[in-house]
Amino acid sequence: MDSPDITRVGVPPVSHGRFGTGRRHRRPSGEPPPLPHRLGKSGRFWLALSVYFAATLVGVLLFNPLSNVFEAVDAAILRRFVDLRSPAVVNIALAMNGLASRWTIRLIRWSVIGSLVIFKRWRHLFVYVGAVMILEILVAGLTLVLARARPFGVTILGPWNGFSMPSRPLAELSISLIGALYALVPRGRIRDTGKWILGGVLGVLIVARLILAIETASAAVFGTVLGVAIGLAAFRMFVPGDVFPVTYRRGKAAHLDVGGRRGEAIVHAVDDQLGEKVIEIRPVGLEGSGGSTPLRLTIQEEDGSHRYVFAKLYAMNHVRADKWYKLGRQILYGALEDETPFGSVRRFVEYEDYALRLLYDAGFPSPEPFGVVEITPEREYMILMEFFDGAVEISEADGTPQVIDEGLLMIQRFWHVGVAHRDVKPANLMVQDGHLKLIDVFFVQVRPSPWRQAVDLANMMLVLALRSDAKTVYEHAQRYFTDDEIAEAFAAARGVASPTQLRSMLRSDERDLLAEFRSLAPHRESIRIQRWSIRRVLMTAWVAFLLFIAIGLLVSNWTVFS
Amino acid sequence: MRRGRRVLAVIACSAALASLAGCANSAEGASAPDCGDPSNHLVVLMAQSVPSATLIPCVSSMPTGWSFTDAVVQNNVTKMWLSSTVAGMNSVELQLTPSCDPAGAPEVVPAPDEAGAHVYAAPTSLDPFRGTRFIVFPGGCVQYIYRFAGGVPATLSLQADDAFSFVSRTRVVQAVRDEFDQTLCGAGAPPCEGDR
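^ Those are the sequences you sent over. The predicted structure of the assembly is below.
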C-alpha cells in the first residue's frame, strides 16, 4: 500500500489574520454586560409578592399573636367588600364567580392541552401539565399546613370547598390562564394585552369572591399570586421565549431569537470585545444544528467592504440539552466514552474554542477560530470563526474523487493526530471550490477509543457513498486503510454510532450502503457497544424511579384535569 | 461529600413529592377532628359548613383496627370516612347536612352522646352489612352510612359509632372567640354581617 501524505488534508488552512484587529473596549467594573440578565418588571412584581406572602406565612405560623393581627386586618378588609352587597351586586358576583368553577378551569385546561397536542408543542405541553400538577400539590399541602377556616363574622354566600388559604380556585384559574397565555400566544403585543386582560379578570374575580365572603383578601390574593408565580417561573425556566418561541411556523427548538435586545447585544459585544463592526446577523443552517444557534455575521471592514464570519450562540439550554443527551446515552449504552457533562455555558464554549484551535493548528480544513464574546456573563456566549463563503453541504455537492480522497485522508489524519470528530455527517462536511471542509468540531475528543476512531471512518465512508457509490469509496479507502481497518469500521458502526441525520439519509437512500460496505470488507463480528457498570445500573434505576414518581404524580393527580 | 448531600436532597425531595401526591388527590387530607379540642381547625370548618347545626360531629377515640381516612368539607355538607382492617376501606361514611329524611327508618334509643337528638336506624342488608343511622338534631342531621365487606358482622358498626361523637356548637363558637377573637356565624352566635 502507498504511504499517503497525511500531513496535509485538502487545502491547507491559511490564516486570514484580519479579524479582531480593531480597537477594543474593556468593560470596567460596574458596567453592565452587553445583555444584562433581567427578571423583567412583571417577574420582579410577582417575585416581590411571593416573598411578601412567604414572609407573612412564616410569621403567622411561627408567632401565634401575629395570626390574630392578621385575621383582624383581613376581617376588616372583607367587611368593606361585604358592605357593598345588594341583591343585584350579589347576583353579579355569583355570576362572576362561575369563572372560578371547576368546569371553567377544566375547559381552559383541556383547550390548552388540545391545542398544544394539535400544534405538537410537546415541550410546552409537559411544562403546562407539570406546572399545574406542582401547583395542585403545593396548594393541597399549603391548605393543610395552614388549615385556615373560611371568613368569620360574615355570612358566606358562594360555594366553597375545604380550607381557604391559599384560594384553590383562584390559584387553579390563574395558572391555567397564565399557562394558556405563555403556551399558546406568541410573545409581543397580543400576549402583553392578554396579560392586562388576565389581570383584569382575576382582579374582578377576587372582588366578586370577597363580596360573597368565600375567602379573605389575603387567601384570594395568595392563591392568585401562587398560580401566576408558578406558571411564570415554569414557563420562563423551562420554555423561555427566547429559546422556545411560540410561533405558528416550523423551526428547530434550540435556536435563540437573535433580534431585538439580543441582536443589539451581539453587535455591541463583537464591537467591544473583538473590535469588529457587525452590520447584519442572519441565522444559517438551522436545519442541521440542534445544539446551538448558528449565525452568519456580516462584518464591515475599514475600507467599506464586507466579509462574513460564522458564529454560534450558546445559552444555558444548550448545556442542559447536552446533559440530557449524555444521560440518555449512558442509560442506553453505558459509558462508551467520556460522558461527563459540561457544568456551565462558559466551559461549553471554551471547549469548542479549544477544539477549533486544535484542529486548525493541526492543519485540518476546519474554520479558523476568531475567539469568544460574552453576551450575558455565565449565561450566554458566542463563538466566532471563519465562514466558508460559497460552500455547500456535501449532500448537495458532487462526490468527486478529490472530495472522496480528502474525506478519507481527513480520517486518516484524525487517527494520526489522535483525535476523533465524533459527529461526521453531511451537515458537518462542506464543499468549497471542490475541496472538503469540516465544521462543527464541538464533539471532538482527544485520544478517543479505537471504537470511536473506527466509527468516524465508517461514517465518513457512508457520507461519501451517499454522493457516489460504495464500491468507489471502498476502492479509495483501500489507499489509506487496510481491509481489516475498514472491516473494523463497519463492525463498529451500529445504532448510536451514526448521527441521526446520517441515519435518516441512509434510510431514505434506495441502496443499503451499510450492507454493501460490509459485503466488500472482510467479515468481522459486530463490535458490542453496550458497556455495563454499577454506575449505569444505578443511574438507570434512579431514572426509572423518578419516572415512576412522575407517572404516579400524573395518575394520582389526574383529577385536576378530569 | 457535596455530591452525596445533593443525592440525598434529591431523594428527600422525591420522597416528599411522592408523599404529597398521595394526599393531593384527597379533598382535604386533614387529621381527624378531635372532640377534645373545639378550636380544632377541621371542627371549626365543619361548623362553617353547616351554620345551622347545633352539634358538630367529631372523633372521640379510635377503636383498635379503625382509622380516620379522609374528610371533605364544603358549603352545606361535610363528609368523613373511617376505614377498618376488617370491614374494609371507607366502610363507614359520616355526612353532616342541614337536614335529612330518615325515610321511614324506625327510631331507636339514642346513645349517651346523642342525648337530645332523634336517632333512626335502617339496615338494608345484613351480609354484606349495609345500613344508615340518622341522628337528627336542631339545625342539622348526621348520617352514618355503613358499607361493610362481605362476611363482616354488623356488630362491628357499634365500634364505629363509638369512634364518632359530637361537640356542641356553642363550645366551638366560644373557642373561635377565644383563639381568633372572631365570631363564628350560625346557630349559637350573634347575627352575622351581610345576610341577604
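Chain B is about 25% helix and 35% strand. The first helix of chain B runs from residue 2 to 24.

Shout if you want it in another format.
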